[in-house]
Design goal:
12 strands, mainly beta, 4-stranded parallel sheet, single chain, globular, 46% strand, 5-stranded parallel sheet
Length: 105
């Protein structure tokens, strides 16, 4: 499967963001900032998202991941590859969807 699209911004926080299905990678971390929304838009087909995160993943307080235009066959996978500090974290009030694969040393 390749690395897909390299995420330029690794903090979704200035604005709410929308991503279509695909593979998204970052060589660092991925954070959804306090009170922000990441919308995953399947465009009415079997959209799938794979996030390859080299360090850590954080869903900040009251952040939300929502799905639009998806089917029952749509999937979301968060691969948190991690280094010595790699982790996946939820803060109070965060809402997310998908499978989180977390590797800790």
């Amino acid at each position: 499967m390749g690395t897909g699209t390299e995420l330029v911004s690794t903090t979704f926080g200035t604005n709410d963001e929308t991503l279509e299905g695909g593979i998204y990678s970052t060589i660092n971390y991925l954070t959804i900032a306090i009170g922000k929304t990441l919308t995953l838009d399947g465009k009415g087909i079997d959209g799938s998202w794979i996030f390859n995160i080299a360090n850590y993943l954080t869903f900040s307080a009251n952040s939300t991941v929502i799905l639009e235009g998806v089917t029952d066959k749509s999937t979301i996978i968060w691969n948190v590859l991690g280094d010595k500090t790699g982790l996946a974290g939820y803060i109070t009030g965060a809402e997310a969807r998908g499978y989180i694969n977390n590797h800790l040393f």
